[in-house]
Design a protein that fits this description.
single chain, alpha+beta, 5-stranded antiparallel sheet, 5 strands, about 25% helix
Length: about 190
């Protein structure tokens, strides 16, 4: 009985935390990449624009800068993205709420590497070589050895255990769980 009450109190406290998307400015982050629209015609091509098919490293370009501490290994990141084959632009995937933990291998390597350091609100386009995408095996809708272009927006970064639970479970489900546990804890007190 006491453990059920303690569990319901813990879950209620966990739900009182601000959801991951409410994290405010902690550290300002600026991309070292200059937006291609800011480059004048006399400058050399930026690495993003000079990307060659099959190269070994990924390139990225930020089109909007977010705020707060950048994503790092161990953070649970919520991102929306559109995946396209490069250079054809044929869309192979779209996801409004892809949630994964950085460094756990739950996303393709180029996705994790390319989003490292970005913060909530950042809009980043990645050009991912096959070696950091699906390589020789390919995937559904992605031919073997394909270069990819991913248009991403960081929606949330969860760092604390409670934030990570809420990011993975969802605020609605966590609230329902708290109500159910609370009712379970109160059930012995109800008249029969």
């Amino acid at each position: 009985m006491k453990s059920a009450i303690l569990l319901s109190l813990f879950l209620a406290q966990a739900c009182a935390f601000a959801p991951p998307f409410a994290i405010k400015n902690r550290i300002s982050y600026q991309s070292p990449i200059v937006l291609s629209s800011e480059a004048d015609s006399t400058t050399a091509l930026l690495p993003f624009d000079a990307y060659e098919l099959g190269q070994e490293s990924l390139e990225y370009k930020d089109t909007a800068f977010g705020s707060g501490e950048g994503a790092k290994e161990g953070d649970v990141v919520t991102v929306s993205f559109v995946g396209k084959l490069y250079p054809s632009g044929k869309q192979f995937s779209k996801n409004e709420e892809f949630i994964f933990e950085m460094g756990k291998g739950k996303a393709m390597p180029g996705f994790e590497t390319g989003l490292a350091g970005s913060n909530v609100g950042t809009k980043r386009t990645l050009r991912v070589p096959p070696s950091l995408a699906f390589g020789a095996s390919g995937a559904k809708g992605i031919p073997r050895n394909s270069d990819l272009e991913m248009e991403c927006e960081i929606k949330a970064i969860a760092r604390s255990p409670a934030e990570k639970i809420l990011a993975n479970v969802g605020v609605d489900r966590a609230a329902i769980l708290v109500v159910c546990v609370g009712l379970l804890a109160l059930s012995p007190l109800l008249p029969s």
